[in-house]
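Memo subject: From amino acid sequence to discrete backbone structure tokens
Keywords: amino acid chain, backbone geometry, structure tokens, three-dimensional fold.
Body of memo: The sequence and its backbone structure tokens, given next.
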Amino acid sequence: MSQFSFRLQKVLEYRELEEKWAKDNYLACQVARVEAEQELDEIARSRDLIVQESGNNLDARLNLELQLSALHYKEELTRSIILRLLEDEEVARGEWILKKQDRGVLEKLREKAYKDWEHQELLKEQAMLDEWATQRRKPAQLGAQTQNEVAA
């Protein structure tokens, strides 16, 4: 019995690699977004701490205002970065889905080719069994004829 070989196996393996790369890229985009969201949370915590430190004199209040202004700028910048990271993440997710579908198509082709190969192997095996049975029947028929001739 011969071994099954899929003629597009190398292409399938490459598509699997492409899918893995796309998935890794998607996960990296997710990690970057989550880190930016954590930074945004850290900015909010810093703002809360600064607001709790209300200054008693004019210099303290001016310093507080400058710190809050800087945090506001940093927060707006981080929000715009998060929006960009969300877009990148969605693009990466779409690419991963496409690569997954491409691999799936080849896997279905491989499964179909395997089923066809199995069917052909069964046909070959059945033909060999039929041939074996035919070859075995001939000597048995010859032996029966010679016994009939001897008895006659």
Residues 27 and 89 are 8 Å apart (CA to CA). The chain has two helices and no strands. The first helix runs from residue 9 to 52.
